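Progress against Task 2.4 (sequence-to-structure conversion) is shown through the following example record, which the project officer requested during the mid-term review.
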Amino acid sequence: MSDSMEGDTSEDDEELENLTSKRKVKQKGPTNKIKRTKIIEQSSPEISEDEYRELLQDISEWFDGNSCISMLKVLYRDHVTNANTLHNATKMRDLLDNLHDSGNLSPTDLSILYDTINVTKKFGFKPKNKNLLSLFQNVRRFEISKFTSHRQKLVKLGMALIQDDVSTLDGSFNIPQKKYEDSWHLINDLEHKTVICEEKMEPFVEKLRKAQLHSAVKALTEEIHEYHELLHDISEWYDRHRCIGMLKVLYRDNVTNANTLHNATKTRDLLNNLHISGSLSPTDPSILYDTINVTKQFGFRPKNKKLRPLFQNDRSFEISKFTPHRQKLVRLGMALFQDDVATLDGMYNIPPKNYKNSWQLILDLEHRCVIRQKNMEEFIQRLKKAKLSLAVEIFTKDQVPLEVQARGPEAYNAFIEALKEGSKPIYQTRLMFVGPQRVGKTSLVKALTGLEFNKNEGITDGIDTSLSCTLSVKHITDLKLQPDIPTGKLIKAKQKYLRAVAEKMLQKKRGIKSKVCI
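Structure tokens generated for the chain above:
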């Protein structure tokens, strides 16, 4: 067995509540493994320089005591900037000093130490200084961020190879044999000769297969097997819930082949295309988490128990792979009943196409550009005409101005109700004059707003803002300054519709039915 195979695996059973670190769950890609990234983010440790040096000494003694120097040379290969240091190091401290000098390790960023413990499985390490113990609680729960997936696989490979395996590979790659001391010396040498190279690992894996080194093959390919297992499980789940139509709507922007989108009968057809296009991979499965979030299929759990923790707390993840427009179309499909579908079918088709469900309707209207992200107003008006208030709200919810949202749920709901009763456009814009100095920008603004021309106008220092003004659409030259609105305050149009919302709320409280247009 290679020199550091026997890692300390003592369990730290303290509850998460005992953590002194702050935590947040978020989606991150690409990830280092097939996983949804769950991060317990370590707050910057407040340790002194003396405590920092003491910590480096303690962890170095721990790893040296477990004969890990060769393994660490493999692990730190991408980070140690000096090749001679990497080659000649006899103690972990030699490597840590280089990591410190290169900025990969510091008193305020100890993450490479946490990652080292996680990758090497040396969970038994505890600093001698009791003040530092809290920094290493539940370290196995921290996400590995400093080492690539490839680098982690090589450490797994080194742990998996026994000395007979090393001799077998020595004979495969060297004549005469080099008589490697352990698996780590083999890996370091094969990396130096670029036999092991991240961009072309398949030939090396094939050599392992021919040598029947199954544990070594598993170390380098396990996550790919888990990835295909995951795709199979999630496909079965969505197919069992008859979601293929919904997924065609959801993946419309991501599936690169129109025929695949049209002809797909199973979820796996779509996932295979996402994989080919690069939207889905073992190192970036985030589109699967987003799919669960958008489609609300929170009951999914992989059959492989090792993968189940990756799908906990799915609702905590920010959706990043689908546009707001795409998410709204999925919500629309969920909101429309079959009677609603028939109503819209009659509006857009003579004779009706008799859509089987809302997803067929949406896909067809998208294909015909009736539903378009850049021009949804006409479709929304059709929804209003059909009195499909839930569908209307899906597309108008985000149109509520921040000024209204800030006034609370009552103002928000009043604005939505007012929108349903009618609206009219507000023609307003910002006008910016840009140009070299002394060409007359200030004088032009003053002329347009009816102010007196000053032939001795001074140079504007930096940027100047003017008051708002109105322009009659009938008389283009009739541009009038609005002196009653101070700079930086809301323009009259905003004040008008905010007053309308307030009036609507007041009327609702008094039980008065009145039409308020915004």
